[in-house]
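# step 3/5: fold
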Amino acid sequence: MVYRYLVCAIAVGALALHAGCASHPEPIIDTKGVNMAHYEADLADCQDYADQVRIEKGVAKGTVAGATVGGATGAVLGDAGEGAGVGAITGAARSAQIGAREKSRVLKNCMRGRGYKVLNYRS
C-alpha cells in the first residue's frame, strides 16, 4: 500500500516538475530600435516554423516507451499494470516537455537569425 502511494507521489511530482520547466516559451525581445510591424511579421513567420515541431508524435512515443519500461519495472515489483500506468504518464509528460522545449528553441533561434536580441535565450 505504501508503495502505491509512493509511486503516485513520484508521478505527480514528475508531472509538476515537467510542467514548470517550460514556463516561458515565447521569446522576450529587446525592442529598443525595433520596427514593431516587422517584428510582428517575423514573429508570425518564426511561429510557423516552430509549429512544424510535432509534439503529439513525441508524446505518443513517450507514452508507449514509458508504459513498456514501467510495466517491466512494475512486474519486478509486483504490479505490472500500475507500473505501466505510471510509466505511461511519466513518459508522456517528459516527451511533452521535450517537444515544448524544442518548439521554443526553434522559435527563438529563428528570431535570433533574423537579427533580434532574444533576452531569454539559453544556448
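# step 4/5: annotate
The longest helix spans residues 80-113.
# step 5/5: archive (pending)
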